[in-house]
Design goal:
2 copies of one chain form a homodimer. Chain A is of the alpha/beta class and about 350 residues long. The first copy, chain A, has 12 helices and 14 strands. The first copy, chain A, is about 40% helix and about 15% strand. The first copy, chain A, has a 6-stranded parallel β-sheet, with helices on both faces. Chain A has a 4-stranded parallel β-sheet with strand order 9-8-10-11, sandwiched between helices. In chain A, helix 1 crosses helix 3, helix 5 runs parallel beside helix 12 and helix 8 runs parallel beside helix 9. Chain A is elongated. At the A-B interface, helix 4, helix 5, strand 2, helix 10 and helix 11 of A face helix 4, helix 5, strand 2, helix 10 and helix 11 of B. Chains A, B: Keywords: DNA-binding, Transcription, Transcription regulation. Chains A, B: InterPro entries: HTH_LacI, LacI/GalR-like_sensor, Lambda_DNA-bd_dom_sf, Peripla_BP_I.
């Protein structure tokens, strides 16, 4: 006896194969009466859907991609772990891809969407500035989690975002250092061409100085060297060595990541100087190391647990039709520890 | 006109559908004459293989899974990055899954193999002790990278392994501390029931003490508390606090990871003591932080770059039939830095 195929069922019902597939897979986008007719026909003819193909499709569709810029930052290791736990709890699988700093995250995402059948995407870290036209090609919901983004680049209804306000948090730390009596504050910033969270935090630094009537001294703005991994301990170390060698006067360093703050401290120790006696050093992110370093590090703590959990929750709400896209700002917390002092 | 299907082609050729599929997909496991006959038939009838299904299958087969135990250890973040870069260079995609300490990595792997069509698996970290019977179910080649494993549990021809000799490296550090004049050496070890790399490093510690005629004092062997993340800074901190509170005399601490060594230092600082003046502290792994912490940390550096690169290279050699399974031991390097001193 010839085996009944899905095409036979489609012919019997006078519908397309894709409609039969939608009926079998409980797809929401099908008329209930049509679905009933198809399922009755299937039962009558004893058609057994091709299980392997169906499973493949189902499990592939139950996959969330996480695209990460800056994996070596321990801040993201924490976020990834939380996101993975949440995705697993929902019985979905997770594909992770690291995006190099010279790669376009949407191109990487489009490639992944082509390869895998994804349900949604979470972008983690970096900066987002893409045309709506390009983003529409993704066809699936995506969430920007701790990603800086251009306020006017994309239509708000087409994506969700969850992050701190990087400009405001950069302002918060600089304002704090100034109130501690510092006026010569060096900043360890991103690369000169950066248009990302690094730039936003730097803008906050500049605005705080101006608000306190302090001139922005461009020679105290240090940019990451191109040849060194960005936001690494090594980059903080190299920038601080160069700054000290330059003979510029300063009393505090604001590093745009905790890892760079650690590199800055090491450079200061090597000169036989002390933190915070000779120089105050502050970081950004609030990684675990801040409470274990010697001295403990003053920093802006990002609420990584909340942001990561909420990112997954929102994505699943959108997938289930329970929510539209949303934009949430989480406040950072200034953690005063041993590495900064009042002048 | 009815569209020609793969089943029609199979019927015309008097072969199974899977044989037609093998012909279309250039599978090696097909008689060349049969393949020619099938391809001729396909051309004659103008059959167009279902591209989406074919692409799905192809790309799914070009995927390597990396299963990681202990993602929060920065040691693995480095290894993952190197492995991912190498896999991308080979134009394969990578699926990453973290294995919880209470999960069975082979069960997780079997689940992934069922979901995705994987070409191979790299297990990263943890400890391996499974029956050959269970491992045979994986059906695809796998590599144990920086994984401890039971020497007699599995047949050597069925898997590859690349790692340091954890027992030997545990011996190396303990022997070094003894030669520096320390005889009361506390060790921050894994959980009491651990049968993993933690146990092997601990065995090296015990053997070194015995070789130097020093009695093993069980009260100086600290085990990770169950309720705290293993190998974390916090676990090192908690164990060291407890040790100091106990009033036990010791002059050195050997922590089985650099992260735990950092936690140990913090606990010592909080007692108003100094490292290395009051206590010498040594770690294990050789993460970047060792050269940036204050003081810089004496440690055993694992050659993570070499191990990760070789792991991927070997897997692709095996997939291409260029190599059988291999077992490679990489020597660790003792990095003498500021956190230890001669008594």
């Amino acid at each position: 006896m010839e085996e009944i195929t899905i095409k036979d069922i489609a012919r019997f019902c006078n519908v397309g194969v894709s409609t039969v597939s939608r009926a079998i897979n409980n797809h929401p986008d099908i008329n209930p009466e049509t679905k009933k007719m198809i399922m009755d026909t299937i039962r009558r003819h004893g058609y057994i859907p091709n299980n392997s193909a169906r499973n493949l499709k189902r499990t592939d569709g139950k996959c969330i991609a996480v695209l990460v810029k800056g994996i070596t930052n321990p801040f993201f290791a924490d976020a990834i772990q939380i996101i993975e736990d949440e995705i697993k709890r929902k019985k979905y699988s997770m594909v992770i891809r690291h995006v190099e700093s010279n790669e376009d995250e949407v191109d990487v995402a489009l490639e992944l969407v082509k390869e895998k059948r994804l349900a949604g995407i979470i972008f983690l870290g970096g900066y987002f500035s893409h045309s709506d036209e390009k983003l529409r090609k993704l066809h699936i919901p995506f969430i920007l989690s701790t990603v800086g983004c251009a306020p006017d680049g994309m239509h708000h209804d087409n994506y969700s975002s969850l992050s701190v306000d990087d400009e405001k948090e950069g302002y918060r730390m600089t304002d704090y250092l100034i109130r501690q009596g510092h006026t010569r504050i060096a900043i360890l910033a991103a690369r000169p061409n950066d248009a990302s969270i690094g730039k936003m935090r730097l803008n906050g630094y500049k605005r705080a100085l101006k608000d306190h009537g302090i001139r922005v001294d461009e020679t105290l703005i240090c940019h990451m060297p191109e040849e060194i991994k960005s936001y690494s301990m090594e980059s903080g170390y190299v920038m601080t060595r160069k700054l000290m060698d330059s003979g510029k006067e300063f009393t505090a360093i604001f590093a745009l990541s905790d890892t760079m703050a650690v590199g800055a401290c090491r450079a200061i120790f090597e000169e036989g100087k002390n933190v915070p006696r000779d120089y105050s050093v502050a970081g950004f992110d609030g990684i675990e190391l801040c409470s274990y370093y010697n001295p403990t590090l003053t920093t802006i703590r990002q609420p990584v647990q909340d942001i990561a959990e909420e990112s997954v929750k929102l994505l699943f709400d959108i997938l289930a039709g329970r929510s539209g896209h949303q934009h949430k700002i989480f406040p950072g917390v200034l953690l005063e520890q041993e590495s900064t002092r009042k002048l």
